[in-house]
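Good morning C.,

I know you're traveling, so I'll keep this short. The sequence:
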Amino acid sequence: MMRAYRLASPGSGIAGLSVQEEPIPTPGPGEVLVRVRATSLSFRERMVLRGDYVLPVEPNIVPLSDGAGEVVAVGDGAQRFVVGDRVAANIFPLWETGPLQLETIAQLGSSHDGLLRDYAVLPEGALVHVPEHLSYLEAATLPCVAVTAWNAVTGGQPVGPDATVLTLGTGGVSLFALQFAKHLGATVIATTGDPTKDHQLRKLGADDVVNYRTDPHWADTVRALTHGRGVDLVVDVVGQLNQSLQLIRLGGEVAFVGFLAEQEVAPVDVMTLFYSSGVLRAVAAGNRTQFEAMNRALTAGQIRPVVAENFAFDQARAAFEFYNHHTPFGKIVITNDDNH
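The tokens, ready to paste straight into the viewer:
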């Protein structure tokens, strides 16, 4: 038997989370049984619990799209992994390559059972090998925000030593985007509203940090840092699209990752978009091929995720409570027992 958390219904919140014992599943043809060692929270999970996630959420679902673990059994015909391999799952288990399609839009933790459990059966095509230098705890942070950040930085116009990238805030996507852009040689300008995070952003590689709370003209400050040219790429995680379009260079790009639910998002002004001659690209995580490319970059640069807090499996509700009331610098991870 194994432990598994289930969410009574979308929108039932933390109170709707219950843990129960279930039989350990058996992998079928082309499937792999993974002993889950760690999972992590992202803004996506808040939306699932609140009931305002953009994709349908099944009742009684096992939540959490992000996790890493160890292969303990393989089904008939499965050839990509062997027992003992360390793996993580793509949040879109059917999206292996190419653009996102309707037939590949199903997600873990919403339309398919997620990873807040001890064991999970997954299609072998959904899995990637975990970089050797990362622990299970660190690898559990990758599937949603890291892959999204990788897609945001590398999925559009090329980013290299001649590029300047602007990251907004200190959420998970922004921190990974900062590290990936620096790995590719770009200059990175980061924003924050918390002066205590200035040093942490610079330690991750930010060349300049602009405080949008203490500097009412922070957008002008950003443009001044580029000598009036504008940045090549904005990784926009808050939905300030008109402002982001005004901050890019002529022909630059805005990678639109998401928006804050509690913030009113202004419609995109078509003239602002037109005059920017830029690209506004919506980013929805990424496919397995992108996940694998990202892992190669993580290995080459020995990049490590930023982990803020670690909770035990039986403290999963407390992990959600903490996430709801704090703005940590880094990811919140839930480990199954002491499997770090």
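Safe travels,
E.
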